[in-house]
Specification:
Length: about 450
């Protein structure tokens, strides 16, 4: 009997998918299995999954293979190289050993079978993944260093272009002879960015108010939806708009990418910090003052309401200005996506808590006023009503089945006379099924009536 084989193919980046790394692994594994006389029954692929950064618990394909191993659905786990299973020295060696303990052989087309017969086998297994982990760290450092070097040279290193820019190809070739993208200003989006800074700095608009303003004037993001206030805050903090390529700690001036004047950007940061100081502490610190914190939801969009704080300015008769902090329940979805939730954006904590508290107190008062006997009577009344409805349903069902039985009895005469389209065997089978259904319906009805009688007797006591 051929051994059943599961295979696992993995590439760390989506770029490797484009370079046919997974087909190469497939070809090698299929050829190896054929050479061994095995049968591949299932193949798993992980695309763009880092074996170093991502834990086994977060890898769906590996989790499925482990579940299949427990169910004894395969005999051999085959990979191109053992580092396809992972590169974490604190986890992967023990995963491999786990498979072996489940009775699954773990093979690599390049390195053979991983065994655990001796202490030396266990040590070699750990050393293999310790080396793989070290290589991942070294690769990460080399990649990060090279990216920072490219940024220092004023070259775009990839990723999603920030709002206000677009990706273009200008004939720049990387070391692998592939044409790569550069950044340039998207004037249509750049105008929106300038408008946001204008409103924020010179007109005193906050992120939420800007979000509403853009929505009211039908100014949408790239996805055709409104630009949420969180994205607006990120734009205001994005130094790249002043004409910089930024990668980690490396910042390179690129005047051709400047959308916002540096002075305007600095004024925006000063305004942001001033407003932050004015708002004071994190609103979550007020959770002890809110009765419904974490358990109240927006009835319009279904999203959880969170706590938000603000400062309300009051001008007294003598001209003095006072500021008082207030906390409220806020529907973040409504705030971030105006027009997509038709409810209120916020509710006063005191008002909402008082409403809920009054309802709760009213319900407790009703419970106190209601005697135990009255509660039992209500419960029995509801149960009797339920049983009565069930009896009505079963009586109708029994009557229907009896009518079907009478129709089949009449059809029996026609079969005997040779005037029916049914043959005797089919009719006999239908008669037997109907008879069984009539008996069952009758038994169910008797049980329901017995239950009703028991409830009536219990009520009299």
């Amino acid at each position: 009997m051929k051994k059943r084989v599961y295979t696992l193919y993995r590439v760390s980046t989506l770029g490797q998918v484009d370079k046919d790394d997974i087909p190469m692994q497939k070809e090698a594994c299929r050829a190896f299995a054929k050479e061994q006389g095995w049968e591949i029954v299932k193949e798993f692929s992980e695309k763009g999954v880092s074996g170093f950064k991502k834990s086994a618990k977060g890898r769906d394909q590996l989790q499925q293979i482990q579940q299949a191993a427990v169910a004894r659905e395969f005999d051999v786990l085959l990979v191109f190289m053992f580092d396809r299973l992972g590169r974490r020295d604190d986890e992967t060696p023990f995963i491999v050993e786990w498979f072996v303990k489940q009775g699954v052989e773990v093979w690599s087309t390049q390195e053979g079978q991983q065994r655990f017969d001796t202490h030396v086998d266990k040590l070699m297994n750990y050393i293999r993944y310790w080396q793989a982990s070290g290589e991942s760290i070294k690769t990460s450092v080399r990649t990060r260093t090279r990216m920072e070097q490219l940024t220092a040279e004023g070259l775009y290193t990839g990723g999603i272009a920030a709002y206000g820019y677009r990706l273009v190809k200008r004939g720049r070739i990387n070391k692998r002879n592939h044409e790569v993208y550069d950044l340039e200003i998207d004037e249509k989006e750049a105008e929106v960015v300038r408008l946001i800074f204008q409103k924020y700095v010179y007109e005193g608009y906050g992120a939420r108010r800007i979000c509403n303003y853009l929505c009211e004037h039908n100014i949408m993001g790239r996805n055709g939806k409104n630009i949420p206030n969180v994205s607006i805050v990120r734009m205001i903090q994005n130094k790249s708009y002043t004409g910089y390529l930024i990668n980690g700690n490396v910042e390179t001036a690129c005047p051709e990418l400047q959308i916002i004047d540096p002075d305007l950007f600095e004024r925006a940061q000063e305004a942001r910090h001033a407003r932050k100081r004015e708002r004071g502490a994190n609103p979550l610190s007020y959770s002890s003052q809110a009765l419904l914190c974490g358990i109240v939801f927006c009835a319009h969009c279904g999203n959880r309401l969170s706590l938000a704080s603000g400062v309300r300015k009051r001008i007294r008769a003598d001209g003095t200005v006072t500021r008082e902090k207030r906390i409220r329940y806020s529907c973040n979805y409504n705030v971030r996506h105006p027009g997509q939730c038709d409810g209120q954006s916020g509710y006063g904590v005191i008002t909402l808590d008082n409403i809920v508290e009054s309802v709760v107190r009213m319900k407790f008062a009703e419970i106190r006023e209601c005697s135990k006997r009255k509660l039992l009577e209500e419960m029995r009344g509801k149960e009797q009503e339920r049983v009565k409805q069930e009896i009505d349903r079963l009586e109708k069902e029994l009557e229907t089945k009896r009518q079907e039985q009478d129709i089949l009895k009449a059809e029996t005469i026609l079969v005997i006379q040779g005037k029916s389209a049914l043959d005797r065997d089919t009719l006999a089978e239908m008669m037997a099924e109907t008879k069984t259904a009539v008996i069952k319906a009758g038994e169910d009805l008797q049980k329901a009536k017995a239950e009703e009688k028991a409830l009536q007797e219990a009520t009299k006591k």
